[in-house]
Amino acid sequence: MAAAVNQVHGFKPLACPPRYHPQSVVHLDYKMLDFSQSVVTQSLEHAFNFACIHKSSSTPCLSYSSKPEDDLSTNPRIEIIAGHSLPQVHALVVEVAIAMAAGVNIEPAASGLGGAYFLHARNGHTIAVAKPIDEEPLALNNPKGFGGRMLGQPGMKSSIRIGETGARESAAYLLDHGGFSGVPPTALVKLSHFNFNLIKSDSDSNPSYKIASLQRFVNHDSDAGDLGPSSFSATSVHHIGILDVRLMNLDRHAGNLLVRQENESYGLGKAELVPIDHGFCLPECLDNPYFEWQHWPQASLPFSEAEVDYISSLDPFKDAELLRTEVPSIRESSIRVLVICTIFLKQATAYGLCLVDIGEMMTRKFIGGKEHWSSLESLCATAKASLNMGLSDDSASSDQEADEMLVVPRVFKKRHAKGVLMRSLSSPTPYNPSSQSISFGDMDDEEWQSFLKIFQEFLPEAFEERESMGLSKQRLRTSCAF
Prior knowledge:
Blueprint: H1 40-48, E1 77-82, H2 87-101, E2 106-108, E3 117-120, E4 126-132, H3 165-175, E5 186-192, E6 209-216, E7 222-223, H4 234-247, E8 257-260, E9 272-275, H5 305-313, H6 316-326, H7 332-351, H8 355-362, E10 365-367, E11 370-372, H9 375-385, H10 399-404, H11 414-426, H12 445-468
Antiparallel strand pairs: 1-5, 2-3, 3-4, 4-6, 5-6, 7-8, 8-9, 10-11
Helix pairs in contact: 4-7, 4-8, 6-7, 7-12, 9-11, 9-12, 11-12
């Protein structure tokens, strides 16, 4: 078998395609969306701003042409949009290109709320999972009956827009430096010549191409929901938790943690966890993350020396520039959330907090049946409100006014801001879903730098306050008996 792969990953079909041998479908909870060919140009250009992507042999300029003579409509083709700098992504794309040239078709995944498709090799082995951006939950061409909205509108998470989860999947792999957390190779690609789901069309055939996230399929035994946490190693839990904190993952549940068992030793803490489904990370504003591992005993163990070294080596500003360069469709507001969460992780670790401490400070609390801001949100609200301070030392600002700042930012002295921060951590502010969430996209560069300085100045007192409130419980420091 042979396939011709050109510089932009175009390829020619074989003269005699082999027979297709489908594999069984495993449980997946993928979230994606779909749209008609008549709105491809407007929706993609608006929601992804692909005009920012530079032309190169590995990242071709997207064509919005739907003319019959367009090569996309006549030959199978795959092109990398985001992730082109990673060798593992290129290897995956070549495998998929060879499979497409061999004439294999896609296999829809039955489970999940969005459209997901398995791509198989000639021998029937599953190579990858493709999730078209226009088949997410709530999107126009969602195949599971959860569609109707256009790209760019609020999705299942209000801080993440419909059609933008695919870019986040690629970003998660890009930010998993050295494969530390085990995210499978993932890219944002343009796929043609496949019969994806299409609700509406002006022609008898499907559109010539779709944008999709493409992730290497991981052979696994089950997912974390099928086992108790005693089966997982502390190292595996910590590595995934570190990634989730950095990216503020809003949807880390047991179903998107695949389990690969070593030597059939269930229950001995040797199972390897593989994190998938990162479409709900990097929100545009501070949101309420969900960390399944927060309820596991491994999260109460201190970080190992190697884990501390890895966290200390993280550079949030280099990561921010990496996203701007490699995944330009990620909005600046989301990139700034990454910076905030990475700084928070680094300083919390240096202070001696463990993973569960960090997760609890990022998660909203329910008190008296009401949702309250997380410690991180209160901290950022106070720091953001402090930006406008320019009052003289003899100016006054009442404590009551400072308290109100947490809902409607007000001008007040820095010394009052710190006092309000401490009170807000001990008496969390109720979360008002009708009010604007804490976002950093409205700041210019000078305001952003000033905010970061204030934010970092407040962190030590926030960590001290957590301990004085008795929220940092005594942790096991040497071993963990599950």
